[in-house]
Amino acid sequence: MAKITLDKLRHSYLPNPAGPDDFALKQIDLDWTDGGAYALLGPSGCGKTTLLNIISGLLTPSHGRVLFDGQDVTHLPPDRRNIAQVFQFPVIYDTMTVYDNLAFPLRNRGVDEARVDARVREIAAMLELEDRLAMRASNLSPDNKQKISMGRGLVREDVNVIMFDEPLTVIDPELKWRLRSKLKELHQRIAVTMIYVTHDQTEALTFADQVVVMQLGEVVQIGTPVELFERPQHTFVGHFIGSPGMNILPVEVDGGVARFAGHAVQLEGPIVRQGDRTEIGVRPEYVRLADSGIPATVRKAADIGRYTVVETMVGDHVVNAITDRLPPAPGARVFLHFEPSQTRLYADGWIATEVWK
Ligand SMILES: Nc1ncnc2c1ncn2[C@@H]1O[C@H](COP(=O)(O)OP(=O)(O)OP(=O)(O)O)[C@@H](O)[C@H]1O
Q1: Among 50, 57, 243, 300, fewest CB within 10 Å belongs to which?
Q2: What is the ipTM of this complex?
Q3: Closest ligand 1 atom number to CA of residue 42
Q4: Euclidean distance between CA atoms 98 and 295, whole angstroms
């Protein structure tokens, strides 16, 4: 187990990068605590795999350092970093039994057979593979093959970090849900530093204590799932997390007052940053259909089960509201109320209000 530090890390795949756009990772500074559960979350192409490969040693960064417990490992090859990795697709030995597959990483390091046996059975029980231990891996379903792959990642007790790269891609939706919570439970039991890479917010938010949100090669926010939901530091986080995401609406700011479509909007607190582009962010959960406020027209309503998402239009702007009441019919004229304590200002994408103290 180890604390992982990324120090001024940058990476370009080009031999002579000319500007920031030529970098797959712009600049990353991070400290990951020993034993923590972390997720790297972001859309395709934001640099997650690049970062993972730098940590595992498959890639040497163009600039900066990777430290494990303060020791510089930037130039160490993967096999000297003591890392376990679980990939998107199963990496197993088809001709071996499930038992031997799970035992392999331990036997390979000379662990004695009694310990191998205890550990294999423990991991197999956690992953509900006990009754398949004697089966040949080739006879298993893709789901179970991927479970073995995960088991092989989890079986060693001496690793610095276990990294999961979109490990649930091949798993069917029902089992996905179970494995997601199982992985969280496993982390609590074995307390090894784990990094989980995904573009799926549900997977990231279920698994991680801390989520690192990336966009275009940059970290835009690191926070607990609640922090990311409650107070996005960037409009990208607001929009990317939540279903539907945060309403991001253009406003004009004059004399400390923000106006959306000509209506003054009360913010969570004082404005502390200026910018060329100003927007407010308010989650649909905090937009109420009220008796007075900003006039809007209902476009449609979608019943999501426990609540309804009402899509309204204010001029050309879509504003989503969540309600647990019977939604108004399409075409109805309504008024919107934005909960002031949950309405933030963003300047050039970054949060620009503080909470009143
Ligand atoms: N081997 C490579 N050579 C050149 N450019 C690359 C290489 N690998 C990745 N890139 C580029 O680097 C950027 C980051 O890619 P990366 O694969 O790290 O993103 P990602 O978030 O993992 O995406 P995905 O979820 O699709 O794997 C992208 O613009 C990609 O095109």
Answers
A1: 243
A2: 0.97
A3: 21
A4: 62
